[in-house]
From TrEMBL:
Species, as recorded: Sinocyclocheilus anshuiensis
Family: Belongs to the beta/gamma-crystallin family.
Identification of the protein by name: Crystallin, beta A1, like 1
An individual GO BP term: lens development in camera-type eye
Keyword Membrane: no
Length: 195
C-alpha cells in the first residue's frame, strides 16, 4: 500500500481575474489509473523528481486551473494531447493564475518585436490559417487579458505553449520567450483557458 502525502504549501492562491482567493489542488500518481505512490499539490512543482517521483503516469486536477485542465487523466495519452508527439513523462506543472478572466484577448504578430501583420483574438481558433492568418508561424504576441494555449499544429495538436497576461506583462516579443523546446515559431491553433 502506498502512502498519500501532501505538498507543504496549503494556503490559498490569489485568483487574479475574479479578485478572490481560490485553492489550487492537483493529485499526481506514479502509476496509470490512479495507482501507486501519490502526492497532492496546491502550488507549482518545477521538478517532480525532487518530490521522490521518477515519473507521473496519471493526474487528477481537483480545483483551480492547471495545465492540464480540471479532470481525471488515467494515463499519459489522456493528458499529453498529442499521440504523434510521444512523451510519456510529465516532470513539472503549475497553476494558471489568470485563467478565470471572463474575457480573454491577445494580439498575434507576423514578425518578432510586434512587427508586421497582426490580428486580435478573443475566441478559440482550431486553425489560424482557416481564419485568414498568413502562414504557419507567429513571430510575437501580446496577451491583453486572460490566458491561452498555443499549439504547434491545427486542431489543438502538437507542442503546447501557455501564454498569460501575468507572465512577461503579457508581452512575448520573440518565440523563444514562449518556453519553446522546438526551434520554430510555428503556431497553428489557439485556445482560451477558462474555468
Amino acid at each position: 500500500m502506498y502512502r498519500f502525502t501532501r505538498s507543504a504549501m496549503m494556503q490559498p492562491m490569489i485568483n487574479y481575474g475574479m479578485g478572490m482567493a481560490t485553492f489550487f489542488k492537483v493529485t499526481v500518481f506514479e502509476q496509470e489509473h490512479f495507482e501507486g505512490k501519490c502526492q497532492e499539490f496546491t502550488s507549482e512543482c518545477c521538478n517532480i523528481q525532487e518530490c521522490g517521483f521518477d515519473n507521473i503516469r496519471s493526474i487528477r486536477v481537483e480545483s483551480g486551473q492547471f495545465i492540464p485542465e480540471r479532470g481525471e487523466y488515467p494515463h499519459w495519452d489522456a493528458y499529453s494531447g498529442n499521440l504523434s508527439y510521444h512523451v510519456e513523462r510529465l516532470m513539472s506543472f503549475r497553476p494558471v493564475y489568470c485563467a478565470s478572466h471572463q474575457s480573454s484577448r491577445m494580439t498575434i504578430f507576423e514578425r518578432e518585436n510586434f512587427l508586421g501583420r497582426n490580428v486580435e483574438l478573443c475566441d478559440d481558433y482550431p486553425s489560424l490559417q482557416a481564419m485568414g492568418w498568413c502562414g504557419p508561424e507567429v513571430g510575437s504576441m501580446h496577451v491583453q487579458c486572460g490566458a491561452f494555449v498555443c499549439y504547434e499544429f491545427p486542431g489543438y495538436r502538437g507542442r503546447q505553449y501557455i501564454m498569460e497576461c501575468e507572465r512577461h506583462s503579457g508581452d512575448f516579443q520573440h518565440w523563444r520567450n514562449w518556453g519553446s523546446h522546438s526551434q520554430t515559431p510555428q503556431i497553428q491553433s489557439i485556445r482560451r483557458i477558462q474555468h
